[in-house]
C-alpha cells in the first residue's frame, strides 16, 4: 500500500502546483487589466478629486478600423479657410458722374456699349441732336 500512498501524494502535489500556477497567472493578468481599464466609479472619483492619473488606451487593428482611427504625419502647412457668402456687387458711387444737358433733344449715337463701361477724360460718350441748338447756331450764322 505504501507505493499507492506515494503515488497519490505525488499526484496531489502536482495538482496543487498546477492550481497554484493557475492562481498566479490569474492574479497577474487581473492586475494588468485593472490598471488599463478603470471602472466608471473610480474614474469619476479621480476626476472629482482633481487628480489626473496618466492612462493609456490600447485598441486592436480591428477596433481602430471599426471606429475610423487614422494616422498621419504631422506637418506645417498654410491654413486655408473657405468662406461662402451671399453678396451684391455694385459700382463705386464716388467715381460715377451725372450728365445733365441743359438743352432739349435726343441721343443720336451712343459711343459706349454697356452700363458701367469705363471711359477716359475727353472721350465722347454720346452724340445729341437738339433742334433748339440747331436754331441757335443758325441765328449766330445770320
List the helices and strands and how they pair.
Elements: H1 2-36, H2 40-49, H3 61-67, E1 106-110, E2 126-129, H4 131-141
Antiparallel strand pairs: 1-2
Describe the structure.
The chain is mostly helical and 142 residues long. The protein has a two-stranded antiparallel sheet with strand order 1-2. The longest helix has 35 residues. The chain has four helices and two strands; from the N terminus they run H-H-H-E-E-H.
Key descriptive features of the protein:
142 residues; 2 strands; two-stranded antiparallel sheet; mainly alpha
Structural class: mainly alpha
Unreliable spans = 32-37
The order of strands across the largest sheet is 1-2
The string of secondary-structure elements, in order, is HHHEEH
Radius of gyration: 48 Å
| Proportion of residues in helical segments | 40-55%
Number of strands: 2
Strand content: 5-15%
Give the CA-CA distance, first to last residue: 164 Å
| Mean pLDDT across residues | 78
Output the number of helix runs. Answer: 4
How would you sum up the major sheet? 2 strands, antiparallel
Shape: rod-shaped
Brief sketch in words of this structure:
The chain is mainly α. Helices cover 44% and strands 6% of the residues.
Amino acid at each position: 500500500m505504501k507505493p499507492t500512498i506515494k503515488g497519490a501524494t505525488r499526484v496531489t502535489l502536482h495538482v496543487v502546483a498546477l492550481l497554484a500556477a493557475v492562481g498566479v497567472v490569474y492574479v497577474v493578468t487581473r492586475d494588468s487589466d485593472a490598471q488599463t481599464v478603470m471602472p466608471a466609479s473610480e474614474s469619476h472619483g479621480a476626476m472629482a478629486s482633481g487628480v489626473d492619473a496618466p492612462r493609456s488606451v490600447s485598441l486592436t487593428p480591428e477596433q481602430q478600423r471599426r471606429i475610423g482611427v487614422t494616422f498621419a504625419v504631422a506637418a506645417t502647412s498654410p491654413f486655408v479657410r473657405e468662406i461662402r457668402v451671399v453678396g451684391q456687387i455694385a459700382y463705386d458711387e464716388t467715381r460715377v458722374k451725372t450728365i445733365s444737358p441743359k438743352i432739349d433733344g435726343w441721343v443720336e449715337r451712343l459711343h459706349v456699349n454697356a452700363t458701367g463701361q469705363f471711359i477716359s477724360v475727353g472721350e465722347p460718350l454720346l452724340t445729341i441732336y437738339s433742334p433748339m441748338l440747331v436754331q441757335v447756331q443758325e441765328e449766330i450764322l445770320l
